[in-house]
Amino acid sequence: MTFDIMPHFSLVTVTVIRFVLVTSVALHILLTKRNTSSAIGWIGVCILMPVLGTVLYLMFGINRVRRLAKKLVSGQFSRRFEDPHSSSWNRELDGQFAPLAIMVGKLTSRPLVGGNRIVPLHDGDGAYPSMLEAIENAEQSILLCSYIFRNDHIGGVFIEKLIAAQKRGVQVRVLVDGIGSGYFLSAVYRRLSRAGVPCARFMHSMLPWRMPFINLRNHRKILVVDGRIGFMGGLNIADENLVSRKPPNPVSDTHFRLEGPIVKQLAEAMAWDWHFVTQEMLEGDIYFKEHTCSGDSVARIVTAGPDTDLEKIEYTMLQAVTLARRQVRVMTPYFLPGSRVMSELALAALRGVQVDVVIPLHSNHPPLDWACAANISPLLDAGVRVWRVKPPFNHSKLMVVDRAWSFVGSSNLDIRSLRLNFEINMETYDVGMAEMLDDFICHHRNRRLTHHDLDKRNKLVQIRDAAARLFMPYL
């Protein structure tokens, strides 16, 4: 009798547990997920695999980062900075891009600031000497954030300079990504920490209950020295960026040296990240200085991430393309945007705007190239011109509209960068800068991608590419 009842009891218990798990998760998804496709996908996974699906959703489906960010925004950190709109360097614009400037100001709560000097630096060969010189001459503070910071030759030089600065009394803070700079072992973190340099790993933990953050990465590249000189862009710290030395897998890139009031916005973005990870608030003039005029550029920092800054970089791009009258140039190492960006670029081309998208012939992540090939056809149909850059692999992230407005920084034009990564870009309303970057992008238009190139792929390759496209949000 006992053996007859137990299977029946177990079946009823399992059924109840399955029902409770699926119902609970489904209700949470319905109340919290804005993206319909994501919501349907998670509910489907939980129906098919109630236990495993629930575990996966608890690990990867809940945006705990936004909860933490909102807590910081409503707490002491949000009151640490003075009113950002009180600076004498704030600027307003007239003309074609005035609606964009107004929109981004409301979106970011940061003002446009004038009096800046912005210098493009190409590859590690052009950027590293200037960055190392700034670190070597630092007197009060160094704030450094990098997605990839390798313990190779050039990484070792940076490490030694940072340790030397710490020893002479400079306040040094280094933030590296918990994935990009080594998940299981981060030699940079170990060397700096052992030398007494405050160093933190963004969203890193080996504990299972911290695994929800494994898919979220800090992709920002920031260096601020003494609150006076800033560097930002797409450049990581690794030997592969020293293109002139002909490393095995060279990576070309574009970085920017900043002076002027914009540096304070850059430092505040780094301070937010540091507090986000360590709970330490960076305060005082050694980090955030008032600036005198350094140049003529008008600029603003735009941050984005799966916290309170969600989609702000994407919205800025969309508004800029909407205002385009003549040209839109985009240079990106990975091109896998969502439907909104695809539609806006296509519509711009259809209304007569010359739209050029410049991507590498081959990136350093083949699955991204496969997915791109399966995703790009609608743009070609609309008249968007897609160009391939010959090697070395170019990692620059640049956007120029009508040779007057520029948008540069760390964000790639893919769903991961626009939705999952913590990114930092800078918009500039500087015709001279825009013309320089526009010429740089046009110089790299080597070979135009056509429908014939896509059609000549054999069926197996097309199937592979189509399958890779399904993983676009996570590539």
Automatic annotation (TrEMBL):
Cellular localisation: Cell membrane; Secreted
Keyword Repeat: yes
Domain spans labelled PLD phosphodiesterase: 214-241, 390-417
Tree of life domain: Bacteria
Database matches in PROSITE patterns: PLD (PS50035)
SUPFAM superfamilies named in the record: Phospholipase D/nuclease (SSF56024)
InterPro entries, A to Z: Cardiolipin_synthase, CLS_N, PLD-like_dom, PLipase_D/transphosphatidylase
GO CC, alphabetical: extracellular region; plasma membrane
Keywords: Cell membrane, Lipid biosynthesis, Lipid metabolism, Membrane, Phospholipid biosynthesis, Phospholipid metabolism, Repeat, Secreted, Transferase, Transmembrane, Transmembrane helix
GO molecular function: cardiolipin synthase activity
GO biological process annotation, one example: cardiolipin biosynthetic process
CDD domains the record matches: PLDc_CLS_unchar2_1
The protein's role, per its UniProt record: Could be a virulence factor.
NCBIfam families: bac_cardiolipin (TIGR04265)
Protein name, entry field: Cardiolipin synthase
Organism, as annotated: Acetobacter orleanensis
Gene symbol of the encoding locus: cls-2
